[in-house]
Design goal:
- With 451 residues, this protein is α/β, with parallel strands linked by helices.
- The chain has 13 helices and 17 strands.
- The chain folds into two domains: 341 residues, 3-Layer(aba) Sandwich (Alkaline Phosphatase, subunit A); 55 residues, no CATH class.
- Strands 1, 2, 3, 4, 5, 6, 7, 8, 11, 12 and 13 form an eleven-stranded mixed β-sheet that branches. The protein has a four-stranded antiparallel β-sheet with strand order 14-15-16-17, covered by helices on one side. A two-stranded antiparallel ribbon has the order 9-10.
- The protein is globular and about 65 Å long.
């Protein structure tokens, strides 16, 4: 007798438990996708790195033959390399300008000081909901014993200026920035740093901050202590192994310091890749002023003596590289003018805020590759209020892409005369140059009277 073969029935969709499991699966998938979408569509993270005393000529992507900067070169290849970015000729004037978006005649009161009444880009980013931190060089509280900086030892000042966390050198004391560094982190001096290297402490703090805030848009401001003098060995130098040589200055170590600064940028990028957030992170690299005057760098276009503190292009023509893999087309080179007052409004626009009143112009549209009305000129008001030598360099000028006019009437073409030895005089000026000079003079005439 043949057995009856029953036809198999599908019970999956008749079983309520299976339906529940299936529903949970689809719900989890939807939530995962939504979270991924939200993370990819959220406002970008921003990391602003500013090297100390590194002129435009120091990057190999800008033509340097003296130093190799493979990480920054690759960053430029995947993003934008700017050829005409201008800071101030000296550190504190540049720091005040980039942080507030204002020209120095408005809020630069003394060397090493930023008035607590000012609003910085960190205040703006924090207002927009970003987690904020700063690591590296501060030098904005004032100097001990000066009447104009009675609160020079206020270790809460970085919080006041919008930073949720900080790890800083030269907040209320000087000390070493390299070997055996003196570093204060969130109000407390770090102990046990006798065998440590300051730049390592700073970038490790930044990496830890990224680890803890990756799920929230963050803003990191990293004013490096590298590559400022003293020129001393780094942990990658052979001489580092001999402790007494760690503080022995020699300009020959500048090459090692350049390499270490480049390496640190690579470490930060590696962390962004590891956390899978690099695509939506805008990484900006620049420098506060020109290279130390004791150094001469070889480039594809000839030797460039350092111009720190001087109003020559070598004093405030600085590198600017911006990477944002999610938005920036690879390998762009932008020749338009950028000045340090422009960073403040650019960051505000990135954060989704209305651009505050300032002297700068946002270049966020330029970063995005959108239509952008470029600058016709950059303006520099420079009054260092520091050493007698630098005070003799105090000046004011306006620069177009190819010409530069000082307040005293001197007129130059920096691309043709980078060391300003041959002013363009009225007896040999062309009609085109005369028109350029008139336009630049109007800018100088509209600026507040020189005090």
């Amino acid at each position: 007798m043949m057995k009856r073969v029953r036809k198999k029935k599908w019970y999956l969709f008749k079983n309520k438990n299976w339906l529940k499991l299936l529903g949970i699966f689809f719900l989890a998938t939807t939530i995962s996708y939504t979270c991924s979408l939200i993370k990819s569509e959220r406002r970008p993270n921003v990391i602003l790195i500013m090297a100390d005393d590194m002129g435009y000529e120091c990057l190999s992507s800008n033509g340097s033959l003296s130093y190799q900067t493979p990480v920054l070169d690759e960053l430029a290849e995947e993003g934008i390399r700017f050829t005409r970015c201008f800071s101030q000729p000296l550190c504190t004037p540049s720091r005040v300008k980039i942080m507030t978006g204002k020209y120095n005649f408005r809020n630069y009161e003394k060397f090493g000081y930023l008035n607590p009444e000012e609003v910085t880009f960190a205040n703006v980013m924090k207002e927009a909901g970003y987690k904020t931190c700063i690591a590296g060089k501060w030098q904005l509280n004032g100097i001990s014993g000066e009447d104009w900086a009675e609160e020079w030892d206020d270790v809460s000042r970085p919080y006041h200026f919008g930073f949720d966390e900080y790890c800083l050198w030269q907040l209320d004391q000087r000390g070493s920035r390299y070997s055996d560094p003196l570093i204060i982190q969130n109000g407390e001096y770090l102990m046990g740093l006798s065998e440590q290297y300051g730049p390592d402490i700073f970038y490790e703090f930044i990496i830890d901050f990224i680890e803890r805030t990756e799920d929230n848009p963050f803003f990191v401001y990293y004013p490096m202590v590298l590559v400022h003098d003293p020129f001393v060995p780094t942990p990658d130098s052979e001489e580092w192994q001999v402790r007494e040589k760690r503080t022995k200055g020699d300009p020959g170590y500048f090459k090692d310091m350049m390499a270490y600064a480049d390496k640190i940028v690579g470490c930060i990028i590696q962390k962004l890749d590891e956390k899978k957030i690099r695509k939506n992170t805008i990484l900006i690299f620049t420098a506060d002023n020109g290279t130390n005057r004791s150094l001469v760098s070889k480039t594809l276009t000839g030797d460039v003596p350092g111009g720190k503190g001087l109003t020559l292009d070598s004093g405030n023509h600085v590198p600017l590289v911006i990477s944002w893999p999610r938005k920036i087309r690879k390998g762009r080179v932008e020749e338009c003018l950028i000045e340090f007052s422009d960073f403040f409004p650019t960051l505000a626009e990135i954060a989704g805020l209305e651009i505050p009143t300032c002297d700068g112009r946002s270049f966020y549209r330029l970063i995005q590759g959108k239509r952008y009305s470029k600058r016709d000129w950059v303006f520099v008001h420079y009054d260092p209020m520091w050493s007698d030598f630098l005070n003799n360099q105090r000046n004011r000028y306006v620069r177009s892409e190819d010409h530069k006019l000082y307040v005293d009437g001197r007129f130059y073409s920096p691309p043709l005369d980078p060391f300003e030895k041959d002013p363009i005089t009225d007896d040999r000026i062309t009609e085109e140059e005369l028109e350029i000079k008139k336009n630049l003079q109007r800018v100088l005439d509209e600026a507040p009277e020189w005090k």
